[in-house]
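Two folds, back to back.
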Amino acid sequence: MSVVLSEHLPLLATAPDGIQKLRRLILDLAVRGKIVPVDINQSVVTTLGKVGKWAVGSGFPIAEQGKVGLEILFAKVSDMNLTENTKFITTTNHTISRESARRLRVNIHPAGTVVFPKIGGAIATNKRRVLVQDTAIDNNCLGITPKEGVNSDWLFVLLSSFDLTKYQAGTSVPALAQGVLSEIPVLLPPLAEQHRIVAKVGELMALCDRLETEQADSASAHARLVETLLGTLAESTNAVDLANNWQRLAEHFDTLFATEVSLDALKKTVLQLAIMGKLVPQDPNDEPASELIRRIADERVRLESAGVCKKAKPLPPIAESELTFDLPRNWVITRLGVAIDLVSGQHLTPDEYSNDLSNPIPYLTGPAEFGDKFPNPTRSTTQTRAIAIAGDILVTVKGSGVGKLNRVSQKELAISRQLMAVRTIAVDNDFIELLLRSAEQHFQDQTVGIAIPGIGRDDVQHLPLGLPPLPEQQRIVAKVQSLMALCDRLKADLATARDRQATLADTLIDSSLEAA
């Protein structure tokens, strides 16, 4: 490697995909004769087709497949994915006898042949494998058996340096043609230098392996540290204790929260602290939540009498096992169903909606059309069986996105049975959304069904709700929004820094290749 690259190895290794780029650079320099001193006068400029003999695949009748323990391995592309076959084909799912191979005129290729996929999407995987014994390959594979004076490991390095997708033809089913591959220019060094190149590549790839291991170990240790320290925040007894614990973290903020994963963990902790009443101090002058509960009940009676919402069913009392934190002063513990009206989505048949917005009511079928905060429906209807209104909180209750949320911005929005709409009664909408966001994993844990997992109305209505006084709800929401905005700014800064690092890494690599 160049001196410039060696000096900037830490930067390159920690850049996005940096180690993968470093591996590609090592291969590029190796096949150009720039990774070890090479006598260019002893090297031969030739083409790929002249460094060996093409190893052509054979048809493999189904009647012959599935047999094991016979003399000849029969390799398919899928065999390249076996854990034992990371570089060498040492085992296959199929074998064939020599007698059957002769009868079927199957091509048998010797040890040292380097094979790769030649048809379909597997070309893009850029897999290369070396045969270690007499082996047949099926006709989705192609290979090269090195000629005399060509080292098999050097040939593996050479073929690994090519992005074969650049040479494929066809769109629906891409394929590689021998004629095209045969003309790829190649610098063929003397055999002794091939051995030195292979040894140096092995040494540098081992360095890349160590860098990857160190990064993985460091990331794992960092994640454990962040988890432990955020846990101390969650264990704070009150807002004052939290402030003290937070101050200790703040002294090392740049180190602790230097990854998107750690910032996401911080966001989750903020939500947890919010619904436990530990994010802002309690104000003894606030009206107690017990009074708020009475107002909620009065408002519900009024809405039911006006036909605005359905009569609520009795909710089960809170069990002691559901009290997962000490309730702050002036709070009450209840269930979410006490403070909301819940609208269940309904299925519409294709003749009840259109695939455009020509009808008066937008129709939302599921979370696929959720935005960052508000949905973007592309269908519409005249049906009013399940209508959400502006301000309602949409909860995904069926499918892989259970627990995902969005907020209704439309005056009216028809919703499908994948969704429910949470309509709050006399409480702060944003505070209830915080509760629902913190419960996403809880909802996913409650899902039933295999083909289409989901939750029911009871899972939403029975969710325990620690209810603070209304003014405190608003203070909590303001604090959460402030902290979430900070996390988002930090994530944006990380993305910008990562892009700059990637650009610099690419520049270093390009400079090294140009210098070569």
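---
second:
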Amino acid sequence: MATYEKLPLVQPSAQNPHSTTISKRRRVPLLAILSLSALALLWSNRVFGIFHEREKPHALPLAAQCPQVDPLLPQRQTDALTLMEKYLESSAFRHETIARMAGAVQIPTQSFDDMGPIGEDPRWDTMYELAAYFEHKFPLVHKTLKLEKVNTHGLLYTWQGSDKDLKPTILMAHQDVVPVAESTIGQWTHPPFSGYYDGESVWGRGSSDCKNLLVATLEAVELLVKAGFTPQRTLVLSFGFDEETLGEGDGAAIIVDEGAGLANAFGATFATPAVGEKGMIDVEVTVRMPGGHSSIPPPHNGIGVMSEFITLVEANLYEPHFHSENPFLGLLQCGAAHGPDFPPEWKKLLGSGTTISTKNKEKLAKEVAKFSDEFKYLFTTSVAVDIISGGVKSNALPERTTALINHRVNVGDSSSDVQTKMTKLASSIAKKYNLTLHAFDDEAETPSSISLKSPSTLDPAPVTPTEVDSVTPYSVLSGTTRALYDEDIIMAPGLSTGNTDTMYYWDLTRHIFRYQGGWDPKQQGLGNIHTVDEHISVLAHINTVRWISTLVRNMDEASLP
């Protein structure tokens, strides 16, 4: 899940802006995080899981290709904040957070594609129940922060900072969950909205995607308020709302939404916040041809012509290609610099410098693409025919045949590139069968024609900067992660092949991260997000609370606008 960029790299001799000495008393054992976002997380676990894993990361000298910051912990400390940190590691908090998580999962905020307007479709009403649940369970949040309800169910919390000149920190999550198909209910080990706790995990739809992030964010802020923390930098919690509420034009210091987390790869442990997203374009193809009785068919009818077009599309797939801004190049460089099991042939192509020749990039793309589809589609535009329909009766020739072809656009390319290619392919079919071509021109369909339309279009996301030669949002996020878990954790830029809600906030800041900072090394996979037996490790959830509370404090102290 994410976009790619050419990463500015700092020499190892550069002074680290986050040099912080951490006593053994405050060092936290290496724990692990579960990636949450369905598509954004999918990558770090499926892709990294391919490689040999080790119980302990292998420490290597930091390299210029993948510079790391020192662990970063808040310097402003009070007795109350120290007690808060200890409480987060207590059995009392564990019991309480399990109950809160279970309660949130038990509210079935399912979101269906065919939902009608709010106020008319009763399926929206569970959102009222969830909002009331949050108000009951997090009284200090609702007493201290300003709550605005946007478009009825969007929850926008604002904790006003004392310094209005500082740009806010924005934390995001969504309230709705993927529906549970009635036909699958019997396959669940525990009922999908039970919130069942088995001693290690909470089970149920939304437990991993992403009510755990909702609850963890509110828990972190509730505890900060209780500990007497007062922010200098405004904190905004965005739980599903219109981005226009926050204004326009570089108005936020950092945005963190659901996304990838930590995983073992190349003989080390990497944290991979997605710093970009691939683009997306749906191409709706319509073939109009004369109907008639099927007992007297022409050599090719609409379904046959559509089939030929789809065959042509699948015979002309996109080649793997690394654009210079692709963040996955940065991840490969980090793997080469810090992973003892990194493939030597890839390392040779990457070279020892901070830039890669065009020739080597093309060779590298071909070699890495051979390894797995999970890797390949981090630097290749994907093509998938997802929907097709045509014909209404067995004895009637189809007059209108449609197909929807989904593309996830490679970083460095654009949706217009896809349109150009699809137009060229459709033109050859139209010419062969003497059909009129309407290619992305918004004209009405005509008889004997092929029409191409784009109902959904999104170019790849702007790539988040990952410089660490000064204090940056990325360096703060990185230092927070390495402080909570282990200095051997390697931070590397990630990419999301799917799209998150951050698409609505691109104008607010360049510093957008799809990342979840909660980690449990014992939990395998993604917690079955979007499928039967979804669950979340309680340890991962608790670590998410700890990570969020620490990030908020670190951002509050950071020398950033």
